[in-house]
């Protein structure tokens, strides 16, 4: 009986200490965020996180690329969740990197990349190759230089303050034409579809997309998907 009573008192003391700690469980700390990156792709870890039997980590995107074999020790990986690291990620709250531009959202670390893509205060880059201007997508329509190059055309939607970019990439066998919208992927902005067509030698080529890709910065690399290919006429 005395032993049982002692055990109960011990558990009670532990619970009291835990409650006392929980009263002030949010404290400022210095953290190297690199330790929260996947050691394979070096992107921020997101839940679920997997580990091998030796404790090496990999994100859910990398496990299939590794053929379910650990990059460090070749043991199987992709079946055992690392619940401890998942709890650490869920417990870390960070401010939006666009706080200085007016966003005051605070969210868990694992949601940083998603929030940054959707944040209305994310900084968008001018599509001119030699321009270093960045700013809110709302300010782009009044600052963009319209006559950039023959390879890129800009259309301004003044009602929504959006820029739509049409780019042409000349390749050995033809031209790739792609369309993008310079804006964050915020639901408030909405979705836009587009239809490209080109007629040559009596033949018409078309490309339709139900959703224009939204980007913070246009790419000057030939696209690998979502484009209209116009072959050179013989």
TrEMBL record:
Lineage, highest ranks first: Eukaryota, Viridiplantae, Streptophyta, Embryophyta, Tracheophyta
UniProt EC number: 2.3.2.27
Chain positions covered by the region annotation Disordered: 1-20
GO biological process terms held by the UniProt record: protein ubiquitination
Domain called SIAH-type: residue spans: 91-149
Family, similarity comment: Belongs to the SINA (Seven in absentia) family.
Pathway, per record: Protein modification; protein ubiquitination
Protein name: RING-type E3 ubiquitin transferase
SUPFAM superfamilies, per the entry: TRAF domain-like
Keywords: Metal-binding, Transferase, Ubl conjugation pathway, Zinc, Zinc-finger
InterPro entries listed in its UniProt record: Sina-like_RING, SINL_plant, Znf_RING/FYVE/PHD, Znf_SIAH
Function field: E3 ubiquitin-protein ligase that mediates ubiquitination and subsequent proteasomal degradation of target proteins. E3 ubiquitin ligases accept ubiquitin from an E2 ubiquitin-conjugating enzyme in the form of a thioester and then directly transfers the ubiquitin to targeted substrates. It probably triggers the ubiquitin-mediated degradation of different substrates.
Recorded superkingdom: Eukaryota
Chemical reaction(s) catalysed: S-ubiquitinyl-[E2 ubiquitin-conjugating enzyme]-L-cysteine + [acceptor protein]-L-lysine = [E2 ubiquitin-conjugating enzyme]-L-cysteine + N(6)-ubiquitinyl-[acceptor protein]-L-lysine
Origin species: Capsella rubella
Biased composition (Polar residues): 1-15
Any Pfam family the entry gives: Sina_ZnF
Gene Ontology molecular function: ubiquitin protein ligase activity; zinc ion binding
Keyword field contains Methyltransferase: no
